[in-house]
Amino acid sequence: MKSLEELRKIKEQVKKSMQMREGGQRVKVIVGMGTCGIAAGARDTMKSFMEEIEKAGISDAAVTATGCAGYCEQEPFVEVEIQGEKPVRYGKVDRSAAAKIVAQHIVGGKPVSELVFS
Predict the structure, then answer these.
(1) Which residues pair with 65 in a beta bridge?
(2) Minimal CA–CA distance to 35: which of 5, 72, 78, 10?
(3) CA–CA dist 76, 90 (Å, integer)
(4) Neighbours of 40 (CB within 10 A)
(5) Domain residues of the chain, as ranges?
(6) What is the C-alpha separation between 90 and 77, in angstroms, rounded?
(7) Which of 15, 49, 83, 85 is 20 to 30 A from residue 109's alpha carbon, by CA?
(8) Percentage helix, strand, coil, to 5, in the chain?
(9) Among candidates 9, 116, 8, 107, which has minimal Cα distance to 49?
(10) Residues facing residue 79 across a β-bridge
(11) Which of 110, 102, 100, 106 is nearest to 26 (CA)?
């Protein structure tokens, strides 16, 4: 760190990240972070959702983690909950799938059918 301005930027980034992980939002993205999820790339998936949500300028979304949901064959597993709608489960969510889910489902209101599983 070389300046007070750099420290302020870091503080703002951490603050945004913490707000995104809190509940009480219109949209909640839950990423399976059990051992099998992490091994399949769930950390990158979670980071991708946070980046895509920020890029889209969405301020009423929370990105959270959960433990094992029992969907090992679908990892990285993600559930998207939008207030007033039925939760949607997505499987094998990588960086490009996360971008598509944010654009098409969270912003556009239409689940990404080819990634949905029940």
Answers:
(1) 31
(2) 72
(3) 8
(4) 21
(5) 4-115
(6) 6
(7) 15
(8) 45, 20, 35
(9) 107
(10) 30, 89
(11) 106
| Cα of 27 vs its chain's centroid, Å | 10
* CA atoms of 46 and 55, how far apart (whole Å): 14
Query: In angstroms, rounded to a whole number, what is the distance separating the alpha carbons of residues 47 and 45?
Result: 5
Cα separation, 18 vs 20, whole angstroms:
5
**Cα radius of gyration (the chain):** 15
Q: How confident is the model at residue 18 (pLDDT cuts 50, 70, 90)?
A: low
Asked if residue 11 has pLDDT above 80, the reply is no
Answer whether 110's CB lies under 8 Å from 85's CB: no
Domain 4-115 has CATH 3.40.30.10: yes
**What does the pLDDT look like over 61-94, one tens digit per residue?**
999 999 998 989 999 999 999 999 999 999 999 9
Sheet harboring 27-32: ordered strands across? 61-66, 27-32, 78-82, 88-90
